[in-house]
Design goal:
Largest sheet: 5 strands, parallel
Number of domains: 2
Strand content: 15-25%
Number of strands: 9
Helix content: 40-55%
Low-confidence stretches: 259-264
CATH topology of the largest domain: Rossmann fold
Amino acid sequence: MQPHTKPFVLIVSGYSGAGKTTVLHALEDIGFFCSDNLPIVLVDSFFDALKKRIHENSNFALGLDVRNGTDLMQLVNALKHDGPERGIDVHILFLICNKQILQKRFSETRRNHPLALDINLDEALDKEQVLLKPLVDYADTILDTSQFTVHQLRNLTKDSFGSDRRIMIVSLISFGFKYGVPAESNFVFDVRALPNPYFIPELKKCAGTESVIQNYLFAQPVVLEYLDKCIDFLRYSVEKSYQEGRCFLNIAIGCTGAGIARLH
């Protein structure tokens, strides 16, 4: 998505269980300011807030669903018609999904449908489709999420509404196994099988950051071989993690008894 020169509001709606929460979380990850189920009485305050935040963040997302009740279309009309008059771009994204798959999702998550208070799930899904029909007709984009996994929907959202440049922070953590593996580690490498300069009398008191230690280690063929194999594996793993949508990746390298240090 190209950067907007004026505030952009993405209204995210759809059938319960179709992925609205996943889309909103993905939008937050790429810098959108998100709000779920805005009451109709707050529309004017919302527009006022947009004007104040235009230089901080010009992308906003509003989650709307059947829980807004009879105010839903009134709210959408207010946003859709008043937005352009106030210099704001408004786009409606509506998520649909196969009924059988929605039933399966509710069964797996064991969550209640918002309309299934005094009716069963099947009836609630049918009733929701009737109530949201006007909004489906009003939508700018309709997305069928029936065959999407959570990861695929998240990545599609980021690709569709994010900037061309996305950052993933990779942290290298060195630690000693006697202190335990850092809990935040995504990948752990054990280097205790490599030559240990601690057992060289003249190197015993040197810190690992000193050049004399580095020269000793990188003079060992087994260390260079281990390093090459790690780099090949990490290049592949980091790229896959980036494609999967991760924002942070922690790589821990453990020896016998070093303290914990981090390098970003």
